[in-house]
């Protein structure tokens, strides 16, 4: 046991429940609530010194465990069952080392909880790997947080050889011999980053669209959000099964953005497009892009990338080849990305970018970020309507992975109640000015959410 190594001494979890300010639509389902999984991990080194880390993540069951057979309550209960088993796995762990080594060694056992839950709860369909990753991410985050706090360092100062002896080939295979994670992660965060504001499928764009005002003092429509936060990056949620609606939605967003940005004197802004994997085929995406280009050429030019247009199971849908679409715009995988194998398969199918998410784990995100840089892929960081500590976690990834151009953070739009108390502690992270998030302050011990 190296002097810098730790072992897990205690693991605790609890839950918080919040209602959304306004609903958000995921894959055709309107979501109005969130359950946060909070995890506390105590670690100890060989000298008996200990520290407690904190990790938090929205359960995101509608996204991670989409089902036509199970209700919201049933998929949430399944993920909570998985959480109890993951807690037991970390609690029983006898491995000492760096958090990346501990989680990497535990991962096979953790992933087995999907099949265990399916069988134990007699579910009519299997628990997805993605659902397990979301649950496990809170435990992994707490472990990294505790490790950094024990050494009184921000986590990103502990990914060099002084703390992490193994090269990347130990985790990712012979292709990465001689490469170390520290080569692909910056120890200091970017000073600031543009924020991607989500334009949900249910969100009003103009005052005329506001049928039921929330009346809480926050903006009620897109134009007001752009003015209040100085937004320059808009992520547009699309249906993927209604070509006319999708085209018209992008044109309508572009029209509002043009009018508002002209008033503000802004000449440059960007869009990302998210179909939530609902396009039936690549032909749909190509038709969509062609129509947008014809109808709104300047709006088309503002599209920075396209996120996961077709089904997440790449192996089951080999016909969804993205080469033609990726020649027009970067096409990134999101739901499909669960390991290095899925990343390589996506590349073979023509995907040219990767969306990283804190909800898939600090360890996995960092390792796959290194792989994405080696393969020269477009890189972005998305969130799962992250709030509180989970947003600090997500923003930290974006701020330390080279090449990430902007960060998504929509908790302030849909669930501000869960951010109460955080705004004052992290000014510029939870409150956006001039379209930018102040990521320079994400330099505290652990993951920085102290």
SSE arrangement:
Blueprint: E1 7-26, E2 29-44, E3 50-58, H1 61-64, H2 72-92, H3 99-111, H4 113-120, H5 129-150, H6 169-172, E4 193-199, H7 222-229, E5 233-237, H8 243-264, E6 270-274, H9 282-295, H10 297-301, E7 303-307, H11 323-326, E8 331-333, H12 340-348, E9 353-357, H13 362-374, E10 378-382, H14 389-400, E11 407-408, H15 411-414, H16 422-425, E12 436-437
Helix pairs in contact: 2-4, 2-5, 3-5, 7-8, 8-9
Q: Your description of this structure?
A:
It is a single chain. With 450 residues, this protein is α/β, with parallel strands linked by helices. The protein folds into two domains: 7-168, Enolase-like, domain 1 (2-Layer Sandwich), CATH 3.30.390; 193-437, TIM Barrel, CATH 3.20.20.120. 37% of the residues lie in helices and 19% in strands. The protein has 16 helices and twelve strands. It has helices at 61-64, 72-92, 99-111, 113-120, 129-150, 169-172, 222-229, 243-264, 282-295, 297-301, 323-326, 340-348, 362-374, 389-400, 411-414, 422-425; strands at 7-26, 29-44, 50-58, 193-199, 233-237, 270-274, 303-307, 331-333, 353-357, 378-382, 407-408, 436-437. Strands 4, 5, 6, 7, 8, 9, 10, 11 and 12 form a nine-stranded mixed β-sheet that branches. Helix 8 (243-264) links the parallel strand 5 and strand 6. Helix 2 packs across helix 4, helix 2 packs across helix 5 and helix 7 packs parallel to helix 8. The radius of gyration is 21 Å and the shape is globular. It starts with 6 loop residues before the first strand and ends in a 13-residue tail after the last strand.
